[in-house]
C-alpha cells in the first residue's frame, strides 16, 4: 500500500472513530438529560434513597450474575470458533470475546468486528472466513432472547403489549441469518440489483456458505442452552434488584421486561441500545404498577451492572487482546 493510500485510510478510520464517539456521547447526553428530568419530577431524595439502600454485597451479586452471562456466552463463542475450524484455545477465544465488549457502544455494535482482526492476526484467517462467527453469535443471542421472552410471557401473570411481535421478530431474524443458502442467494440478488462492489458480495456469499458448519443439531441445541442460561442470569438479577427496592412484581414479568427492553434498545441501532432500552424499561415497569421512584433507579442500576459493566471488562481486556494479537501476527509472519 502506498504512503498516500495509507494516509487516506488513516484519515477515514479516524473520521469513523470520531463519528462513533460523537454518536455515543450524544446518546449518553440525551439519556442523561431525560433521566435527570424524570428524577427531578419524581424527587431526588426518593431516587437517591433507593440506590443508597442497596448494600455492597447486593451490587456484587448483580455483577456476579452478569459474569455468569458473559462466561456462558464466552463458552458458546469458543464452541462456534472450534466448529468453524479455528485451532484456538479457550482462553484465547474468551479474550477475543470479552475484549470485543469494549466496542459494544459503536452504532449497531459493528465495532465488535475487532474480534475478527484479532483472530486474523493470530491465525492468518481472512475476515470472510471468520465473519460467520459474528453472524452466528448474534443470531444465537436473538433466538435465546426471543425464546426466553416468549417463555416469560407464558408464565407471567400479565401480558406486555408488543412483546410477542418482538420475540417473533428476534427468532425470525436468527433463523434468516443462519440459513446459508438464503444468505448466499440474497448476496447474489443484491449484486444483480446494484452491480457494484463485486468483491464485497463475493466475500459475503463465501461467509454465508461457511454458516453451514453451524447447522449441526447438537451444536445449535448446546449453543441455545448456553445462551438461555446467560440471559436468564441477567433477567434474574433484574428481578432480584426490583425486589430489593420494594417492587411487587413476579420473576417472569421482570424477566420479560428486561429482555424486551434489551431487544427494543438493540433494534434502535443506537450504541449499546442506549436510550431505547432505558425508555422501554421505565415505561413497562410503570405500566406494571412499579412506582417511578423505583423504576428510575432500578433501570439505572441494572444498566450499569450489565451494559456498562461489560464495557468496563472490555476496556480492561482490550489492550491485552490487542498486544497478544500483534505478537500472534508476528509469529504467523515469521512461522
Automatic annotation (TrEMBL):
The chain crosses the membrane at residues 51-72, 147-176, 214-233, 296-318. It comes from the Bacteria. PANTHER family: UPF0104 MEMBRANE PROTEIN MJ1595 (PTHR39087). InterPro entries: L-PG_synthase/AglD (IPR022791). This is Lysylphosphatidylglycerol synthase TM region. GO terms for cellular component: plasma membrane. Keywords: Cell membrane, Membrane, Transmembrane, Transmembrane helix. It comes from Palleronia pelagia. It is found in: Cell membrane. It is a multi-pass membrane protein. Its main location: membrane.
Amino acid at each position: 500500500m502506498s504512503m498516500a493510500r495509507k494516509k487516506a485510510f488513516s484519515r477515514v478510520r479516524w473520521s469513523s472513530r470520531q463519528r462513533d464517539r460523537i454518536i455515543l456521547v450524544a446518546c449518553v447526553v440525551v439519556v442523561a438529560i431525560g433521566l435527570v428530568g424524570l428524577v427531578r419530577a419524581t424527587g431526588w431524595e426518593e431516587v437517591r434513597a433507593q440506590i443508597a439502600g442497596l448494600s455492597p454485597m447486593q451490587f456484587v451479586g448483580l455483577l456476579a450474575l452478569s459474569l455468569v452471562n458473559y462466561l456462558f456466552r464466552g463458552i458458546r463463542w469458543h464452541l462456534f470458533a472450534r466448529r468453524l475450524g479455528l485451532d484456538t484455545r479457550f482462553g484465547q477465544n474468551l479474550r477475543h470475546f470479552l475484549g470485543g465488549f469494549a466496542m459494544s457502544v459503536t452504532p449497531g455494535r459493528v465495532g465488535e468486528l475487532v474480534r475478527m482482526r484479532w483472530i486474523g492476526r493470530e491465525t492468518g484467517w481472512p475476515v470472510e472466513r471468520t465473519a460467520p462467527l459474528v453472524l452466528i453469535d448474534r443470531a444465537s443471542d436473538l433466538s435465546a432472547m426471543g425464546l426466553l421472552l416468549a417463555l416469560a410471557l407464558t408464565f407471567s401473570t400479565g401480558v406486555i403489549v408488543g412483546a410477542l411481535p418482538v420475540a417473533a421478530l428476534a427468532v425470525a431474524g436468527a433463523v434468516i441469518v443462519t440459513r446459508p443458502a438464503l444468505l448466499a442467494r440474497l448476496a447474489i440478488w443484491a449484486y444483480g440489483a446494484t452491480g457494484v462492489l463485486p468483491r464485497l458480495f463475493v466475500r459475503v456469499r463465501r461467509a454465508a456458505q461457511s454458516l453451514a458448519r453451524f447447522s449441526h443439531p447438537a451444536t445449535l441445541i448446546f449453543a441455545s442452552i448456553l445462551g438461555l442460561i446467560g440471559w436468564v442470569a441477567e433477567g434474574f438479577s433484574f428481578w432480584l434488584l426490583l425486589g430489593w427496592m420494594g417492587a411487587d412484581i413476579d420473576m417472569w414479568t421482570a424477566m420479560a421486561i428486561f429482555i424486551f427492553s434489551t431487544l427494543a434498545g438493540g433494534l434502535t441501532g443506537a450504541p449499546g441500545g442506549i436510550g431505547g432500552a432505558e425508555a422501554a424499561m421505565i415505561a413497562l415497569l410503570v405500566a406494571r404498577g412499579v412506582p417511578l421512584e423505583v423504576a428510575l433507579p432500578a433501570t439505572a442500576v441494572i444498566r450499569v451492572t450489565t451494559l456498562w459493566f461489560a464495557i468496563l471488562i472490555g476496556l480492561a481486556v482490550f489492550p491485552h487482546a490487542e498486544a497478544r494479537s500483534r505478537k500472534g501476527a508476528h509469529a504467523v509472519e515469521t512461522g
